[in-house]
Specification:
about 190 residues; 4 strands
């Protein structure tokens, strides 16, 4: 009687040194730790830029009133194509370079103070993901266009709300969410 055939012993594939290096593991661990921030920041940025590209391709710059503007709800909501060299409500109008520098400083500050801000908490990551995506979206406009492209135009009777975009919405919702979280969080001592 002959012995049963012996199957060759397979050794597991050895991971490459780069895949197991502390730097690679650390980078992926950090990205994973801040995943909600990254997902929302990239989502807001992508949606903001896609809508601005669509607006630029379909409406002439300076389109504000019908019939050139797109009427969504007559007397209430229009899609327009205007530029804003200022911040919210046109504050600091004409200071696009200063606002771009302030945006960069804000992003750097968020990075350096991420632990103090509590960015490992999911709700804080959501707030700062919205905020950072909006900041980068408007920053790119300022660098490429010299102004921010705004297109969402709401009218409330005789009051016309300042025209805004997806990035502005991300910034506002992110700030409000973080303020609410901060007010509800227990004090540190």
């Amino acid at each position: 009687m002959s012995p049963a055939p012996v199957s060759p012993v397979s050794t597991p594939a050895q991971p490459s040194p780069a895949a197991t290096s502390p730097v690679a593991v650390s980078l992926w661990a950090r990205i994973h730790a801040y995943r909600w921030l990254w997902i929302l920041a990239l989502g807001v940025f992508g949606l903001d830029q896609a809508t601005k590209l669509w607006i630029s391709a379909h409406l002439a710059f300076g389109t504000y009133d019908p019939p050139q503007a797109i009427t969504v709800i007559d007397g209430f909501f229009y899609i327009v194509h205007v530029g804003n060299t200022g911040a919210a409500w046109s504050m600091l109008a004409g200071k696009s370079g200063l606002l771009a520098a302030m945006a960069l400083i804000t992003l750097v500050a968020i990075y350096f103070w991420r632990h103090s801000l509590g960015l490992l908490q999911p709700v804080v990551q959501i707030a700062f993901g919205l905020l950072c995506g909006g900041i980068v979206g408007n920053l790119l406009d300022r660098v490429l266009q010299g102004h921010v492209i705004d297109f969402l135009d709401f009218h409330f009777g005789s009051y016309v709300y300042p025209t805004f975009n997806i990035a502005d919405s991300g910034i506002c919702v992110g700030v409000i969410l973080y303020i609410i979280h901060s007010l509800r969080a227990p004090s540190g001592g």
